[in-house]
Amino acid sequence: MQRKNVGILRGGRDPWFDLSIKSGEFVRRSLDKLDFNINDIWISKDGIWHKRGFEVLPVKALEQLDTVLNVLPLETYADIQRDLERISVPYVGPASVQALLAVNRNLTREILASEINFPKSRTLSISENFEDELYNIFKSVPQPVVVKPAQGFLGDKENKPTHGFFELKDSISDAFESFPKVLLEEYIRGRYASCLVIDNFRGEELYIFPPLEFQESGDENYYFYSSNFTSEEKKELERVSLEVHRDLGLKHCSKMDFVVSPKRGVFLLEIDPLPLFSSPSAFGIALESVGSSIDEFLKHIIDITT
Known about the structure:
This protein is of the alpha+beta class. Helix content is 37%, strand content 30%.
């Protein structure tokens, strides 16, 4: 049987370039153990495509590929997915529209809020009277809060609470440098959890992994399998993850992040349609917890896209 030609797309724009390169290398090393022809394609920060060490046009880089593992940051991912769709190259991950919808926090709340708990939030847009508006919000919203872009990601500052008016103002000002709208989200104390979903795995249309617990460690999250969740918490984490994956039309794999409050229950914090890019290590831990491996997972998602 002829070996499949698999492309790995990595790189892209700052501030996610280094993470994409690192995640792509993780995927490449895993694919090295499997029976595929690997095409390592990276995109520089200024948008120049490279293959086998040479600059190349995108259409040439994608020639004769059976499928593409797109390990690019969201903004670059969405642009590239549209190109892949236009020239009919199969790929792992959701369509560009679904990927962008999943990280639009206001829209996802509108779509999912009737069945899923989200932290309370307020949206703030850039305006000339921003400071006056912020002061009124500060007085009326319980503190601390977490500042997030209304669409997109802030990186390592994503879930850090602000303390006091001036820290809140600085966090919002920093976010406004890259995003026109921000979300001020209530900070809920509790344990952090992640659930991963894979399509058509082990005979199930949607396969849900046991919840992982995660803790912040420097600029990264440290994931580990935990038996500390009650059976009710576990059921709710799994129910919400499956519902989000299905209702938003996500494909192949996704990851949901939660906070589990001992008094208030389970709240959905983030929807990650691109977990291969953002947290490949979470896959390794989740797969080990059910006796699988990253090799089995990668072979599976390549097989279902080709």
